[in-house]
Amino acid sequence: MKIKLWDLPLRLFHWALAASVVSAFVTAKIGGNAMVWHGRAGLAIIGLLAFRIVWGFTGSTHSRFASFIKGPAAIKAYLRGQWHGIGHNPLGALSVLALLTLLSIQAATGLFANDDISYRGYLSALVSSDTSSRITGIHKLLEPLLMILVVLHLTAIAFYTRVKKDNLLMPMITGWKNTSEPVEPPRGGSFIAFLIAVLIGSAAACAASGALLTPPPPPAAEETPDF
Question: pTM of the predicted model, to two decimals?
Answer without folding.
Answer: 0.90
